[in-house]
Write a structure and sequence with these properties.
- This is T9SS type A sorting domain-containing protein.
- Keywords: Signal.
- With about 230 residues, the protein is an alpha+beta fold.
- About 15% of the residues lie in helices and about 45% in strands.
- It is built from 2 helices and 17 strands.
- A hairpin with a 2-residue loop joins strand 3 and strand 4.
- The chain is elongated.
Length: about 230
Amino acid sequence: MKIIIKLIICLLSFNSLAQIAPLEDHTWYLEKLVINGNDFPPPLVYQDNYTASFDNDYFIFGSPCSSVEGILTHNSTASFAINEGGSDFQICPGLTGVDAYDEKFAIDFIDIDDFLNPFSYTFATQPNYIVLTITNGNGDQAIYRNQQLAVASMEKVAVNLYPNPVTNHFQLEVESGKNIKSVRIFSVDGKEVLHFEEAQITYDVSYLPAGIYFVKIKSETGESVKKMLKR
């Protein structure tokens, strides 16, 4: 009888771990909040900076400015309750739209004062990614994917940016048949610093200060993001 009881306990423990393991297996990227039936996607430039990660009983909802993190308890029915949590609220005026969005997430979806427990979750498998939907006690949702969103909705285009590091100019080489439609350059804090509406033979970045930048290249069928070092 003792052996049977131990076996049942082990099976229950394994089932619980099987339910929460997918949460821990990925970094999740926020696609949108759904509050009172209305969609609220993150500010476009910073969408890949809104993340969720789980480490058994610890969670972090990341943001380019103010994260929310704390302690949770997993239930046996694909749900969890937040026991402790808080936010390192900051004012980030250089990140357009981020302060307001962080407040909406922390207050309207989490409610860091009272916590909108329980939070249930479901997974939906798509051809190239997994969708995680977390629903709070009010029925509002946070919808995530297990891949970055900047190129999730479009084909990822193979692009070669050279020379890199860049001094004054760079060139782009894309795979055959993929015509460049626009090129946007962002600083590391997500601010757009240059925007080319059409393909160029060379791209002039001579006036940009030295540093690290991200170049988002959009073609007729897809997008790619390249890291650029400006000397």
